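FIELD: query
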Amino acid sequence: MLSSWRADRYLGWLLPIFAIVAEGALIAVVYVAVEVAIDHRPPLLGTFEFAVAAGVAAAAVRRGWIDPDVDAGRFLLLLGLLGMVGWMWDAEVRELVLGGDPLAAVPLHPGGWLMLVAGMRGVGRALEIDDRAVTRLVLIGVPALAIPWALGQLGAGPLRDVFTEEAFVASITFVTAGFIAAGLARLREIGRETGVDWRQNRSWLGTVFGVIVVVLAIGIPASILLGLPGDAVARGILGPIVTAIGYVVIGGLSLAALLAALLSRVLRSFGIQLPEPLSPEEIARLPEARIYTIDQLRESLTALIALWVVLIVVIVVLARVWLRRRQRRGGRSTGEERSIRIPQRSARVRVPRPPRAAGRSWTRPYDAVTAYLAALRDLAARDTAAARAEHETPRAHAARIAAGPELGALQADYALARYGGRTLSDAENRRAIGRWRRLRKGPRAPDHGGAPP
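FIELD: result
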């Protein structure tokens, strides 16, 4: 059951998104503990806000807007802006800063420092979204949750209940997103060795649903033992999505209010009088509207979320069954064709790949091997004479075109990883990606060691 290349490209974003959400959830648990135990107040930030900070930093590095190894000034500026946003999230901090007393606001709201930490973690996720890095995040992060949970128990009275609920929701989010990211990273690593793309065989779908089922099986009894509301597990799984929708709704309503105010002013300029807004006295004479609290709506919202989850699962299962039946019917009239594809790393041979269709986008480099291949694509796009021939070794190719030491170092890393069977470190992979960026910014026409005939 194959999918189009555009859908595969969109599915490729699942791994970094889940990894970044896991980073935000882990920091959110620490933040909730600090707010309750040290600041003695409910938290203001959540998983979504810290994940956005990590995502902004990761996107800036992936897009090449900042490079911590080359331009430390821009990197520190980005971290400072993220920390400022987290610090100014507190209304008391904003009042003191706008009132001209920023020094008094410095010790307030440690969320700014943790927002800065989220940005630094996002930079790491931009450079290291592989099997080992994501698995290490989960294996270290799950037992490390015991530290903020122990700190949060120092909260007194109602704050302890606030910590238990908020920390439990963030912990469920971390476990769900972290294990899904680790599973997807493992599928991608297996695909690199066997030539099977996890986005095309739908193995990712079983991984996602398998993790969700395990989290539900563990989270529901845990929430009952902790005396938490029934929607705590649902908020842990769907919390970042619901928060994102809430911000979109708030932004849409704010934009609608601004457009309504502008339209009212334009109509008044043409002499069209609109009804005046109600005064406080008129509002007081209106029938009293019943106000519902979150606790009163909690059961209804939980049932609504569960209904949507069940509908989505049913639709996905039915779609998969229908597509499989179509594929089987289409395959009956044709002959069966089988082939064997040798894994690249186990046999250490180069498997020929089909040519890339025109118009398809390529994945940005994430290690030394892909950085070298991306450099070859860039050189061939600039000048066909600079392309590497089939019979040419990486070292001979680098010496022939004389593109500088950057390409020589890239081909050395490529030869060590592909032909030498050596596993390069994360630092070596980062340096290789930096070499590719600098090589890409070089002169448009490479030097071939002589003038063309």
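FIELD: remark
Residues 365-440 form one domain.
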